[in-house]
Every structure is written in C-alpha cells, then in structure tokens.
Amino acid sequence: MMAPLYEFGRFGDSASLVVAVLLGIAFGWFLEQGGMGNARKLSGQFYFTDLSVLKLMFSAIVTAMLGLFWLSWAGLLDLSRVYVPETFIAPQIVGGLVFGAGFATGGLCPGTSCVAAATGRKDGFALIAGMLAGVFVFGEAFPAIGHFADSTARGAWTLPQAFGLSYGTIVGGVVAVALGAFAGAEWLERRAERPARPMKVVA
Amino acid sequence: MTADARRRPGIERALAAVAVIGGVLAVVAGSPTRPTRGSVDVTELARIVEHEEDHVTAVELARWIRDDKPRLRVLDIRADSEFDDFHIPGATRVPLAEIARMPLDSAATYVLYSEGGTHAAQGWFLLRARGVKNVFFLRGGLYEWLEQVMNPHVASMTPQAQRDSIRSLTLWFGGKMTVVDSASTVPSALDRELSAPHKSDARESIRKIRRRAC
Amino acid sequence: MSDVATTAAGQALGAAASSRADATTTTRIRVRRETAPYASPYLAGVGIGVVLLLAFVLMGRGLGASGAFSSVVAAAVNTAAPSHAAGNGFYTRYLSDGAVNPLRDWLVFEIIGVVIGGLASAVLAGRMRWTTERGAGITDRRRLVNAFVGGTAMGVGAKLARGCTSGLGLTGGATLSVGSWLFVIAAFVGAYAAAPLLRRAWR
User: pTM for this one?
Assistant: First the structure.
C-alpha cells in the first residue's frame, strides 16, 4: 500500500500545504469551467432549468468513488487511512436543511463563492462575508447548542455498513442512481428549454 | 442557461460507459480490499518486547487517562457484553478483526487491553504490523486494572506520599483503596478469590472474568 | 469581433490581430475578450473527481471549503479576544493551543488555490466581470443582501453539519459517509423548499 502518501510519511506538513494550494487551483479551475462561479447558472438547479450542479457534483462523486474502490482493490491505496467524514445524524440533517435554504437564497456555496469573488462577482464577496458572519454566529452560540451539535454521533459510518451490503454493491448502486439522475436531468432541461427555444437541438 | 455550456456527447458517453463498467465490476468484486499485508521488523519488535516498551502498567494508563493525555485511544478488545459490564473509562470497544481494518490516527497513542492481556498483546502485534508506532497494551489486562487501580491493596508500611498518590488515583476512578497490615504480604487477586470472597463490585467483575477465557 | 485579446498579455505574446476564423490552432495562450462557453458539467465534474481522488491519494483526505472560513473566524476572534476564544469549544477546535497559527491550515491554503484557479480559468475564458449576478427581477442591492443572508445561513448550517457541499457532498459522497449523504439530501430539500420564495430574484 503506497497511498495515501502523506499518511505513509512520504512528505511533511509544509509540503502538504503546497499540495493544498495546487489541488485548490485545479479545483477552482474546474469549478469555474463548469460555470459554478456564476450564481445565476447555479441557481438554475433549483428551478429545473439548468441542472449543472447535480451533473457536476454527481460526476465528481462517482469519479472519486470509483477511483477509491479500484485503487484500493489494486492494493495501491489503503482505504482504512482515508478520512471518512463522521456522521452526526441530527445536526447534519438540520444543518443540511438550513444550508440548503441559504444555498437557494445566496445562489452559491462556500467553495463556489470564492470562485465567484475571484472572477469579480460582487455577490461572491457578499456571500463570503455572510459565511464569515454565520460561522461567527455559530461560534458564539456554540456554548448553548454545542450539545446538539455533538449529538447522534455515529463515527465514520458508511453506506455499506448502514445497508448491510458490500462496498462494491453500494458503489454499483451509486453509479446506477447517478446515471439515472443524469438522464432525468437531461429530460428536465429539455423540457425547460422547449417553450423558449423550440428549435434548440440538444445533443 | 444550459445553452451556455459546450457539450461533448462523445466523451461524455465514453465516460458514462467507463462508469457503468466500473460500477458493475465493483458489485462483482464486492470488497475494495484484497488480503491485507502487514510487515514487521522482527528484530526491532524483539528488542521492544525485551525492553518492555510494548506495554504499560495499569497505573500508568490510569494516570494518562486522568491527566487527559492528548490523542489517547484506549481499545477494549473483549466481547460486547463484557464491555457493557465494565470497561476502563474512555475506552472504545474494537474487536480484533476491526483492529486489522480500522482507520488509524497517526498521531494517536493506542493502548489495548483484554481480560488477561493475551489478546491485547496479539492486537498490539497487529497494529505494529500495520505500521503504528505508538501502541501499547495492558500486560495484566483488566485483572491488573481492577487490582491496581480500582481496588488496590496497599501495605501499611508504604510511605504516606505514595499511599496518598495511589488513593487519589483510585478515588478518581471511583475505586477504593485498602490498607493492609504489613505483617501479611499483599494478596493477589487470585489469592483473594480463593480465600474469603468479598462482595465488592470489583471482585464480582473478577469472578465473571475468570470464568471466561482470556 | 476579434477573439484575440488586445491586452498587454496578448501583445506580449506577439499575437497580432489574427484571423477571426480560427482561434484554436495556435499554441499561444489566448486571453479572450468575450465570454467562452462553459465546459460540459459532466467533464468539469470528472475533472473535480480526479482532483478529489488525488487529494485522497496524496493526503488521505478530501477537499473542503467551509473549514477555511472557520479558521479565519477563529483566528480573528482569537486576535480580538483571546481569552474569549480560548473558552469556547468551537473556536478552540481551530486554534490548536496556540502552537500553530490557525491560518496555517490545509483548507485555508486549498481555498487560496481555489481563488487562483477560478481566476485563471475566468481570465483565459474571458469571463472576468466586475458585476453582480442576479435575475432581472431584483436590484443589485437586494441581490447582495440575499447573498449575505444566504451566506449566513450556510455558515450556520455548514458548522452544524461539520462541512458543506465540498467537504461533505464531494468528500463524504465519494467515501460513502452516511451523514454526508444525509446532509446533501437535506440540503437539496432545503434549497428546493426555499427556491419558490426567491423565484423573482433569479428570473
């Protein structure tokens, strides 16, 4: 098992920060390429006119998920050393709902707001300011709500464990759901375009 | 709004096909891990064992817990029901099979324990084979914890300062220190068991433990 | 309209007014004046998936965004009121006992990269614009207020959930973390619930 390289001591903390910047550059590049720095395009997701958010996120998830599975299977990556975000059932559901409402209101998410600001969008800056304010509000409220925020913890709980199915079965399932979602997205977008542009030929 | 994106149907379909293949084969493969190999430097391990750097005493562990040693992970590798009956405060239950697979924290200090210590020693070896350096086990197992931390018997001729240190540690964990007449030797858990059995919680636990295998 | 920029960069590259018929056969970097179409969201998504996978392979962790905001806020609070920060369980998470500058954090550096990458992509595609992305139905000011409010909600939601669409959605999604998938589903629910109220903002 050679990877994750950092976990095996192949490079140190300072080098990891360089890696962070480089990965960030690629991340920001692709986000902007996909139009995720544009709040108007992004918000189309929530009116079923432009489902790029779904397509982009799901494509990324499936790509990395398959990569993790097969690199591990090939013995090149030690999956047990890969960080799995921990589960906190209640806070993550509640946080998700609040986050989603904010997402629809702001039209950008934390990562894409930085892309938007980088490309000159004032709404990106406003959203960043809002995020900082929100984090501060949370921080100040933490002594009161910290108990809730730490509740219903399940640790690094994964879908295979939760469903009692093999990892590979879940992977296959996610791919199937993704492709189904893509087909649905194409259909919805065609439907949204038809009244406005009846002559539009979609590949 | 989607008109503003350049689409490449050929590449997209090719990627979709790759994803389908990758997904179907993943279902067939089932697990993303094939047999895991660990490796050890036998000479180095032998040296570590010989120098007794592989284990900690119950008192040392107790102090680590009380002093909130950063990134301390105490792992209990016994069965679930035994864990529920009694476990070292702060310990998490991790069966040996999980030890082989669990995500590791490279900055953590792991301490494993079982009833007597044999399984914990095996777990120690597994973690060393996985590349963990900061790992120890409780050589006397839960026996040692109960005897040395929860219900220590201290000879009356032990210096006051030492007695106080032991007492405060024991009290911190909700145990009870007993001072015995220095005329008799400090009885071991086994001896006490064979002689007049007392109905303290700790002894009950020992009795339960002794009935099961290590 | 010439599609070769007449900026200093273009001149420095010696790209004198070339034919407008074909701007893609030369290997020189072209800075566009007008807006290039976005990339396919699927391809951009796969690109991000590869970057995400690289993060797992190199660092054993995925990407993120909201954590950088937390580090910034924690650093600011710590500078303005150190004892207050030290007594707060949320801020101390990012302050590591004062041993390391909280801004010397992997996610902070990653976000710096995101800004650079987004900027580069937009510059090369001619998508830099000092403007506010909004629908015709509202004013610039209203849009900025919405962005700030949305950002605040996302700040709170992201901290409750311990992540955002990048950290939980992408990273947690690819590693099949249950809580992350719950978060994403909840976020979409929250967004679709709020969207009808904001229709006018995006039209």
Answer: 0.69
